[in-house]
């Protein structure tokens, strides 16, 4: 007897509700699942046997085969288990690609093959991409690039999102035409030559996000120069951009008038077309290895409109060799991070940066061990004009990897004496230094004179996350410049509302 609940369909003794749906809706639901689970529904009934072969999305991920087995085989070496699992995935993926009824109708294709043992891919031929395709995500890890991208890829009009990793694109001899692509990510992709990359990017007229991570080229000429115009590009990320031969670098010239976020960590010479600053730039993370003063000044000028900036000591090193550093003005800069700065030869660079950023609110310094040479004229720095941001806007300073050397201590003392509106100075102690030297030489930092009576100074120790502040020491009141009270309002104890955790 069939049991029913008022207002509902059959529950016991009747068909399940999902089976009452049209095939089109069921296929749409199956398209949302990882393909492994969609194929698993074939055992439910005769009707479900072939439904998965009509899904519009395939999601093949070998990561599933690396999850612990419920009943691992006894006495099986780990390497043999990995080989067996990879073989199982290759067989499964090849079966799916062979049995799907119409690969040309796919709108989404995701294929992640993470090879953990030295083996061939086990896949022959190229994937099939048809005109409806909107999203392609192919990632191959292992020992060889996989040639699997068909020629039809370069003319997919509906394609919007592309992620390629560990694949061989070869030479692109014809202009690409991908009029809908907005997001393109190329990671460890091997191409025939620099011109092939140019043809691919020029074929993406509405591109908004571009990631180039370790792109390699089979053919490389000394005179190569990569130049491309991307008028709608908003996000650009370049990491370790180089040819197979590290000594054959070439300039990268990009025209991106609407760029908002820049992230570059490379030894290549990145340039932006024109000399004017990028008017829409919001954040810039720059770590380049080109040791040229004129190049660096040009690059800093082009990114000078950024509100948040992350610079590296190696990038700034050409400035240390110049007596009169003439930096551009950073009119919008509120957050500045400088990593691996060597204070014994860069304090004037830091002073110049602060002098050029009158609206700076947060300064983060990641220190490096000094060389031991004392070349700093602290007397000259004390008599120099105090940067405007130290007098009117800089509220928080964070120092990471703190070690107590004379130059570092002098730098901290200077910032505390000059910071008129400082609310918080946090110093994260270097773990290795702490093990060697202990806390003895660190505690005097809490007693340094402060210009701002509202400033709270903290020492943060790595092992136990212990935080010691100057407010814990009653003797610190003698160093305060207030009217006899060293209490700090709750408002002053709060962190800066504008701090961006992702940026840090």
The radius of gyration is 30 Å
Q: Give the overall average pLDDT.
A: 81
Helical fraction: 10-25%
Structural class call reads alpha/beta
Number of helical elements: 12
Low-confidence stretches: 1-8, 243-248, 370-375, 474-504
For this entry, give a set of tags.
504 residues; alpha/beta; 2 domains; 16-stranded mixed beta sheet; 3-stranded parallel beta sheet; 12 helices; 24 strands; disordered C terminus
Written overview of the protein:
The chain has twelve helices and 24 strands. It has 504 residues and is α/β, with parallel strands linked by helices. It has two domains: 39 residues; 350 residues. The strands form four sheets. It has a 16-stranded mixed β-sheet. Strands 7-9-11 form a three-stranded parallel β-sheet. Strands 12-14-16 form a three-stranded parallel β-sheet. Helix 7 links the parallel strand 19 and strand 20.
Question: What's a quick, concise take on this entry?
Answer:
The chain has about 500 residues and is of the alpha/beta class.
Helix and strand arrangement:
Layout: E1 3-4, E2 10-12, H1 23-30, H2 35-40, E3 57-61, H3 78-99, E4 108-114, E5 135-141, E6 161-165, E7 168-170, E8 183-187, E9 190-191, H4 194-202, E10 209-213, E11 216-217, E12 226-229, E13 235-239, E14 252-255, E15 261-266, E16 270-272, E17 283-288, H5 293-302, E18 308-312, H6 313-320, E19 335-341, H7 343-355, E20 362-367, H8 378-383, H9 388-392, E21 396-402, H10 406-418, E22 424-429, H11 431-437, E23 456-460, E24 467-469, H12 490-493
Parallel strand pairs: 3-4, 4-5, 5-6, 6-8, 7-9, 8-10, 9-11, 10-13, 12-14, 13-15, 14-16, 15-17, 17-18, 18-19, 19-20, 20-21, 21-22, 22-23
Antiparallel strand pairs: 1-2, 23-24
């Amino acid at each position: 007897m069939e049991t029913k609940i008022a207002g509902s369909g059959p529950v016991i003794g009747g068909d399940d509700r999902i089976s009452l749906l049209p095939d089109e809706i069921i296929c749409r639901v199956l398209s949302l699942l990882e393909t492994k689970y969609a194929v698993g529904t074939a055992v439910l009934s005769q009707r479900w046997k072939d439904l998965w072969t009509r899904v519009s999305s395939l999601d093949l991920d070998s990561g599933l085969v690396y999850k612990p087995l419920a009943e691992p085989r006894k006495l099986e070496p780990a390497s043999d288990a990995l080989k067996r699992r990879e073989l199982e995935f290759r067989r499964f993926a090849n079966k799916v690609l062979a049995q799907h009824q119409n690969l040309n109708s796919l709108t989404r294709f995701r294929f992640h093959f993470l090879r953990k043992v030295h083996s061939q891919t086990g896949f022959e031929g190229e994937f099939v991409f048809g005109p409806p395709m909107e999203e392609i995500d192919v990632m191959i890890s292992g020992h060889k690039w996989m040639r699997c991208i068909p020629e039809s890829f370069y003319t997919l009009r509906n394609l919007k999102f592309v992620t390629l990793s560990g694949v061989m694109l070869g030479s692109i001899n014809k202009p690409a035409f991908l009029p809908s692509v907005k997001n393109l990510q190329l990671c460890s992709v091997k191409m025939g030559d620099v011109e092939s990359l140019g043809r691919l990017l020029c074929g993406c007229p509405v591109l908004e996000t571009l990631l180039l991570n370790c792109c390699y080229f089979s053919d490389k000429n000394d005179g190569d120069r990569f130049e491309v115009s991307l008028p709608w590009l908003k996000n650009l990320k370049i990491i370790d951009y180089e040819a197979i031969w590290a000594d054959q670098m070439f300039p990268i010239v990009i025209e991106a008038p609407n760029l908002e976020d820049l992230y570059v960590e490379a030894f290549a010479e990145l340039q932006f077309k024109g000399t004017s600053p990028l008017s829409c730039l919001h954040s810039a993370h720059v770590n380049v290895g080109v040791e040229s003063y004129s190049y660096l000044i040009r690059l800093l000028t082009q990114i000078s409109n950024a509100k948040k900036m992350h610079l590296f000591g190696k990038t700034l090193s050409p400035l240390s060799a110049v007596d009169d550093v003439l930096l551009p003005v950073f009119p919008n800069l509120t957050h500045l991070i400088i990593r691996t700065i060597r204070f014994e030869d860069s304090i004037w660079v830091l002073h110049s940066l602060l002098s050029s950023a009158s609206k700076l609110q947060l300064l983060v310094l990641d220190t490096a061990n000094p060389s031991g040479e004392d070349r700093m004229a602290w007397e000259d720095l004390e008599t120099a004009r105090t940067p405007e941001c130290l007098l009117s806007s800089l509220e928080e300073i964070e120092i990471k990897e703190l070690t107590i050397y004379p130059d570092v201590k002098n730098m901290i003392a200077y910032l505390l004496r000059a910071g008129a509106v400082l609310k918080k100075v946090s110093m994260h102690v270097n773990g290795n230094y702490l093990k060697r030297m202990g806390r003895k030489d660190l505690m005097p930092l809490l007693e340094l004179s402060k210009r701002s009576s509202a400033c709270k100074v903290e020492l943060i120790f790595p092992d136990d996350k212990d935080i010691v502040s100057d407010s814990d020491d009653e003797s610190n009141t003698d160093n305060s410049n207030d009217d006899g009270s060293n209490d700090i309002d709750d408002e002053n104890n709060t962190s800066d509302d504008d701090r961006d955790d992702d940026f840090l």
